[in-house]
Amino acid sequence: MTEFSRKKKYAQFIQLLKGFRKSSILKAKSYEIILLWIRNNVTRSQFLLLSGILVGLTSGLAGVFLKLLVHYIEYLVHDKVHFEVQIIYYLVLPVLGIFLATLSSIVFFSTEKRKGVPAILYEIAQNSSVVSGTKMYSQIVQSALTVGFGGSAGLESPIAVTGAAIGSNFARTYKLDYRERTLLLAAGASAGIASAFNAPIAGIMFAFEILLTGVVFTDFVPLVVAAVIGSLLSKIILNEAILFQFRARHAFDYTNIAYYIILGIICGLYARYFVIVSQWVEHFFKHLQRSRLQKAILGGLMLSLLCILLPPLFGEGYQSVKNLASGRVEAVVSTSFLQYFAYHQWFVLLFLGCICVFKAFATSITIYSGGTGGNFAPSLVCGGTLGFFIASVYVQLGFPNVPVNNLLLVGMAGVMSGVMYAPLTAIFLIAESSSGYDLFIPLMLVSVIAFVIAKYFSPISPDLKQLADDGEIFTTEHDRNLLSLLHAPDLIETDIQTIDVNASFEELLELIKKGHRNIIGVLENKEELVGIITLDDIRPVMFNHELYSEMDVQHVMKAPPATVEIAEDMRNVIRKFDDTNTWNLPVLQDEKFIGFISKSTVLNQYRELLKGYSA
Fold first, then answer.
1. Residue 225: which residues within 8 A CB-CB, separation 6 or more?
2. ∠ CA(140), CA(145), CA(148), 5° rounding?
3. pTM for this one?
4. Measured CA distances, 594 to 91, 281, 498 (Å)
5. CA 332 to CA 63: how far, in whole Å?
6. For 36-58, what is each residue's pLDDT tens digit?
7. What strands, in cross-sheet order, belong to the sheet with 519-524?
8. How far apart are the C-alpha atoms of 32 and 170, rounded to whole Å?
């Protein structure tokens, strides 16, 4: 490097330091100064790779920390405690957990209006992938309180949201653009999911299937790196008892294909049942005329009752599925009132069937009464229990060669696929967690069948349907995604001419002489739109002076072909342009005229977005 080059680099570094001194955000953060200096001295690809490593480390550690925290809370509750004592825990802890989670949300995190993965999808589409910094820890606190104290929900969605917030805020710190910010947001979520399951491919699939729907990327190396690092952290730190791992399974036998087809159909129908219950419970709590804390107490009491009757509903429920996969059915039954009765296989099946039926209620009550959690774990637990239930029925009916463990594993993928609308994530998650890559055929078969059935009832995930219908999240329709990024308030042309409805024709001509537009708004009381005038409307009489005395504004104005509300969805605006075959439409706010929106302006903005979208 020449002397001139060295001086130039030094001058750039000094200028960078001066910029940091002026920044209230980065003041006294030397590690950020170093990384920003690195960013200015390495290529974009190198910096994104380094970013993926750092985001993966941070998000992975956050996921591992949450899993450990909840595991040890559950350990204190369950370990070496008699059933009679556990009943007290089941009665008190779920109420306490949901109450504390709701209280913390009210006191400390009141600015967070949306929860879970739908909130992240909203930020990607409507807030340029900028996620609130509080989400880097709020989800950990609230989900630990909820699930750790017995809430029947999963930790994976909160972990994904935490990772997404970490990635987004990392990108904001280093002033990365929208595409890079979205990429690191997805990398953080991917690392979180990978750390929760020790499944890097499943983490990547989750990012592509759920978070990056409708977003086009050519550079996803940071995503892969983050997922691998999150998975490694999980492997290194978490022990076998915490990891979502299954060892026992049977070799795939194509002669058993009928078992899997039937299971896929049942999983799809059950997933629909799960969704309907979730919507019903959400509607119940949403319209319940009680305070948030009162709803939390009510929901906690309802959950406590369910946990007393069906103890496997307490917490995530993974241990019950592990016991079933290991053949320890008695360990599942012994936590309930069935321990007082003689062991009978049909009693066990009835018990497992009740778990499948009421887990949907327990999860929905946990989430919608005020707790924080997701459907990841519940869908897996329900799927595993359902698969074991179906397999046990086959065995009791005398069917030969029933692959019990395979049906349990594949059932998890099937229900998750139907509930989460994420078949690829489900397939790779179970394949990685069970080292069961030889089960790919039944995994794909059951997951796809369940997914197709779920989509038959609702083409879009019910959790996201309202947001998708409102154009607030991205879908697979790329044109629709781009239009959702356009907003009428940003496109209004306020530099327009208006005239009073009672003005004379001469006043109108004077206005035209001074103007440069070919459209004029006609107002009453200076704010109410009563019509519009275009140059085409007055051209026939404009040069006929004899008609001036007989004409006024009301003679030449006409009703607008349509009007646009300021908050109207841009797809509706485009539809109005097409239906009216016009290039300018008036915009109203609370029935007051505020300007015009031009079709050419909309198309120009659309083209600009398209350039950045496909870059």
1. 49, 52, 53, 56, 187
2. 100
3. 0.78
4. 58, 42, 10
5. 27
6. 666 677 777 888 888 899 999 99
7. 497-500, 519-524, 528-534
8. 10
